[in-house]
């Protein structure tokens, strides 16, 4: 690489400045849908698996003579739910690192293909015994999670690097908000499939006839629901392979400003740039484990990782005792009074209602307000409100769950907790790591933050599966040891949210600033030797 590196630096800044001030265009919206499909699949799968596990328990784990329908044994339930999380965590770290090494585009198609194939395969099973069905399901769910995990750092980074600085927050939030569509689609698919099968193959409640209450055709229901999740992702595969590499990666990491300008001009109308030649990279790059990184971004990484970890402990444990909350407040009758498909239909309907009222609006509030209010305020207020609502659920817990008329208030508070999770830290923890780290470490740092979140999801899902059990052994679910009960679990979750609020103070505000300004990439450019001749 010859001299004139400073000129290269100047050219680089020109390409990036042009991106920062580019008008919002149709391509930005295409990118949101294409990048958001991973999150659609993620949310769809996560939503459906909680419904499917109830059905799998009835089909494969019925105990003759038992007064209540079969349920998955604790270790099987933990495996089915947990294996996807472990896959996601691994995928976030691996593809985050790979996205910085090889470029975002080169690995972007792989994650989607993995999701599509494993969604389809997780609905197949090799063998008829409960063990073989569960083993197959777990195997493919791990790899499905691996693909989904890769999508976190790649989609966030790609969207942040394509966007202009004025609406960047809204664009990244919109990619994440595709989860909302995934949840609703999952709910609607489950409702339609279970209602169609219920009409075609009527069955008595479990209490009347334990064997006939689960018709043999129910085995197709869960498979169809899981398989349909692959469709939307498969449809966007073509567009994903056609996306050019992001200009920021090409200019700052691959040091090719000319190529970056050419790539962007194919898809975006950017301000005209003159005299762009190849860049003779003159910055001194620092690695993830260097003192320089720790000095500049160490606390930022602690902040983004800790807030995501604490949020997901609360967020995922809430999701899990949704079914129990519905039963406690009388939305879903006792399992023995329903047939298998009736139960699936009712749980799907209840969860879709909660999603429509609480979960989904929160995402879009974030999209609308993030570039107005800023990331910090949304995250801090979100954590604060979640703490407040959890305490409001926990303190008078017996009042809420007493047989009577308090159910509406309880569900309202429960829905509001979800609303402020999504119009709050659930969205911002995803957005900020894609904005504040240097381009050559951006996907890696986002992957580390996201993997911390998934660690929180594992704690939230499994820790609370056991913790939320009643302290009274006679009231625990079949196969579980006594826990501390739902009320005490809610107190613990409120504490997690409060800690999340404190860690939010380590994360800088990135509203309205360019990525280079936030990450220090611009400083590195200014430290370069002055150009021999001006380019502008």
TrEMBL record:
The chain crosses the membrane at residues 26-52, 107-126, 132-150, 171-200, 220-239, 353-373, 380-399, 411-432, 444-468, 488-508. Keywords: Membrane, Phosphate transport, Symport, Transmembrane, Transmembrane helix, Transport. GO terms for cellular component: membrane. The keyword Transmembrane applies. Residues 516-536 are annotated as: Disordered. It is a multi-pass membrane protein. It is found in: Membrane. SUPFAM superfamilies: MFS general substrate transporter (SSF103473). PROSITE patterns: MFS (PS50850). GO terms for biological process: phosphate ion transport. One of its GO terms (molecular function) is symporter activity. Belongs to the major facilitator superfamily. Phosphate:H(+) symporter (TC 2.A.1.9) family. This is H(+)/Pi cotransporter. It comes from Oryza glumipatula.
């Amino acid at each position: 690489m010859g001299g004139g590196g400073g000129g290269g630096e100047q050219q680089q800044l020109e390409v990036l400045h042009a991106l920062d001030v580019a008008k919002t265009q149709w391509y930005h919206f295409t990118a949101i849908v294409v990048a958001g499909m991973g999150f659609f699949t993620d949310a769809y799968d996560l939503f459906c698996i909680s419904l499917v596990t109830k059905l799998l328990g009835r089909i494969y784990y019925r105990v003759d003579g038992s007064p209540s329908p079969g349920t998955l044994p604790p270790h099987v339930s933990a495996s089915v739910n947990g294996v996807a999380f472990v896959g996601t965590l691994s995928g976030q770290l691996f593809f985050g690192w790979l996205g910085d090494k090889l470029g975002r585009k080169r690995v972007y198609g792989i994650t989607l293909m993995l999701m599509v194939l494993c969604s389809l395969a997780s609905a197949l099973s090799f063998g008829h015994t409960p063990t073989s069905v569960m083993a197959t399901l777990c195997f493919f769910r791990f790899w499905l999670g691996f693909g989904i995990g890769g999508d976190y750092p790649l989609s966030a980074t790609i969207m942040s690097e394509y966007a202009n600085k004025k609406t960047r927050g809204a664009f990244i939030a919109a990619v994440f908000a595709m989860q909302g569509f995934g949840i609703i689609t999952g709910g609607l698919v489950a409702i339609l499939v279970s209602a169609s099968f219920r009409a075609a193959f009527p069955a008595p409640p479990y209490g009347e006839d334990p064997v006939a209450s689960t018709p043999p055709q129910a085995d197709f229901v869960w498979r169809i629901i899981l398989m349909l999740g692959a469709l939307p992702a498969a449809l966007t595969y073509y567009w994903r392979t056609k996306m050019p590499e992001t200009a920021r990666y090409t200019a700052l990491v691959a040091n090719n400003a000319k190529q970056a300008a050419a790539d962007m001009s194919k898809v975006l109308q950017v301000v005209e740039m003159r005299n762009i030649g190849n860049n003779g990279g003159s910055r001194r790059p620092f690695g993830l484990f260097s003192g320089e990184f720790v000095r500049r971004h160490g606390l930022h990484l602690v902040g983004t990782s800790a807030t995501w970890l604490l949020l997901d402990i609360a967020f995922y444990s809430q999701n899990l005792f949704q079914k129990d909350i519905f039963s406690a407040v009388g939305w879903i009758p006792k399992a023995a009074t329903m047939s298998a498909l009736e139960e699936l239909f009712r749980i799907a309907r209840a969860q879709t209602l909660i999603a429509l009222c609480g979960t989904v609006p929160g995402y879009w509030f974030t999209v609308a307000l993030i570039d107005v209010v800023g990331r910090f305020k949304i995250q801090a207020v979100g954590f604060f409100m979640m703490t407040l609502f959890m305490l409001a659920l926990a303190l008078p817990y017996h009042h809420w769950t007493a047989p009577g008329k308090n159910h509406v208030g309880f569900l309202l508070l429960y829905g509001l907790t979800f609303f402020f999770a999504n119009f709050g830290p659930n969205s911002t923890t995803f957005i900020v790591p894609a904005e504040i780290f240097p381009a050559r470490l951006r996907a890696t740092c986002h992957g580390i933050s996201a993997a911390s979140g998934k660690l929180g999801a594992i704690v939230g899902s499994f820790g609370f599966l056991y913790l939320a059990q009643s302290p009274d052994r006679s009231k625990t679910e079949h196969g579980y040891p006594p826990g501390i009960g739902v009320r005490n679990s809610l107190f613990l979750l409120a504490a997690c949210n409060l800690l999340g609020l404190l860690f939010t103070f380590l994360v800088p505000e990135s509203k309205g600033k360019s990525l280079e300004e936030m990450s220090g990439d611009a400083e590195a450019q200014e430290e370069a030797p002055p150009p021999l001749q001006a380019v502008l």
